[in-house]
Design the sequence.
């Protein structure tokens, strides 16, 4: 796999779904990847990346951003409220707005800082107790709550349960987004991004298929 392979698979999936070319953005998920691999993808011209940890992103992206113009980094992992201010300085978008407390914190920071990253609300489509996200039946009310706080909500995000057919979850997310007038759909990973595109994904989060398998961090 490589960046060029994934880009062409995305283009095919867009065409197969009757969608406009380049209507899907590829978020290259660079978490845990060695810097040399990330730099190679930057050198190929790609400019949109995803990270799942604030600390890890802080350790690599300020330097990469200095060397590569117009680079965008999205947070795709959970955000603790005590790291929200730091996240404002690091990320162009946050895909994991998953609870009222975080919405209130982001709204306060947006006032203080005079700007706010684009936001996606994470929906726990599989209603898995161990997984973050707003329950599907609470999503409409939470979208309204975020809008009342003036937060720039651009769309919804989901991570389907590993054991289930992801298309059911993608379809559910698309339905919730449509009835709330939201255009952004952050869904689809290395194993299922084509199915996500068929169901309307605007942002696919692809890691290992772009960079190669993640090298697991040494266990503590
Ligand atoms: C790691 C991660 C991805 C990318 O996973 P791959 O299977 O490597 O494509 C996508 N989304 C989230 C939320 C992740 O944490």
Sequence:
């Amino acid at each position: 796999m490589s960046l060029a392979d994934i880009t062409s698979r995305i283009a095919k999936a867009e065409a197969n779904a009757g969608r406009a070319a380049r209507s899907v953005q590829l978020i290259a998920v660079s978490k845990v990847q060695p810097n040399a691999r990330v730099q190679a993808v930057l050198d190929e011209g790609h400019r949109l990346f995803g990270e799942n940890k604030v600390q890890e992103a802080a350790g690599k992206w300020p330097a990469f951003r200095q060397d590569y113009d117009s680079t965008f980094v999205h947070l795709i992992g959970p955000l603790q409220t005590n790291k929200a201010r730091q996240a404002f300085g690091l990320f162009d978008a946050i895909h994991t707005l998953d609870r009222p407390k975080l919405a209130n914190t982001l709204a306060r920071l947006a006032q203080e800082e005079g700007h706010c990253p684009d936001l996606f609300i994470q929906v726990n489509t599989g209603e898995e107790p161990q997984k973050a996200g707003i329950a599907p039946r609470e999503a409409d009310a939470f979208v309204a709550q975020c809008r009342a706080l003036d937060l720039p909500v651009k769309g919804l995000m989901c991570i389907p349960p590993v054991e289930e057919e992801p298309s059911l979850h993608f379809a559910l997310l698309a339905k919730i987004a449509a009835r709330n007038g939201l255009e952004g759909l952050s869904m689809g990973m290395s194993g299922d991004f084509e199915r996500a595109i068929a169901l309307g994904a605007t942002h696919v989060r692809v890691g290992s298929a772009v960079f190669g398998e993640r090298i697991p961090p040494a266990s503590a």
Summary: The chain has a mean pLDDT of 97.
